[in-house]
């Protein structure tokens, strides 16, 4: 597994780096926020796949790497018109996007999921509505409502759930309390810490999480793996400033 982050400032002008299908999809999005996030996630996906395949990152080459969506929303990749033998997962938050890439699974269904969150305030209601009793206890053990410990814990657990629900390709159609997160108790020198997301009595998704500046990044997968390696060709998430550029111009042109 490998990963890459990009910031909004790197989004190329125009649509020449998108495929026809991607450009048409972006054009249906009237709100700048949605359109920018879609383009940003495309950039992360294309750059990551280009880096894995050793392809150039000029607009024509990027347009040949299509990051399309299955009916339920899960992404898949087509390179020069052919189905690519990779599984990808995409996420964005506050002007930054991450793509996780791995080999395609042999069974039907997703093999990996990634989710990016910022450490931001989470209410008591958020914690009680979306987290299991065990997870709520963990958040309370990390600090009072409104403290950094509370907010890191609440966002981290939420993110790990989203990662697992992306592996399952259901996303937030599922009840977030149907999966439960257990965090490991060590941090590797490369910044990754282990986690496991339990889905029912028999299914479990091992994964990893890291804190990069104001961001929390989680991933989940079908199999136990080492943490993903960072691909060349991305931006540094650890120094990334959250941006909300869409606010200046909420309706896309
Ligand atoms: C998956 C989901 C939780 C992610 O939402 P989010 O946290 O706001 O957004 P993120 O930036 O972290 O992730 C967005 C990416 O998740 C991926 N995604 C969307 N649905 C997915 C699914 N069912 N399974 C796996 N990945 C999914 C997509 O790649 C999407 O980016 P893209 O549309 O540009 O390809 C949410 O989109 C969801 O619940 N989707 C399913 C239900 C739904 O409303 N579907 C409508 C689309 S058909």
From TrEMBL:
Keywords per UniProt: Transferase
GO molecular function: holo-[acyl-carrier-protein] synthase activity; magnesium ion binding
Listed Pfam families: ACPS
Disordered as annotated region, ranges: 232-253
Domain of life: Bacteria
Record-annotated 4'-phosphopantetheinyl transferase domain positions: 112-185
InterPro entries: 4-PPantetheinyl_Trfase_dom, 4-PPantetheinyl_Trfase_dom_sf
Name of the featured protein: 4'-phosphopantetheinyl transferase superfamily protein
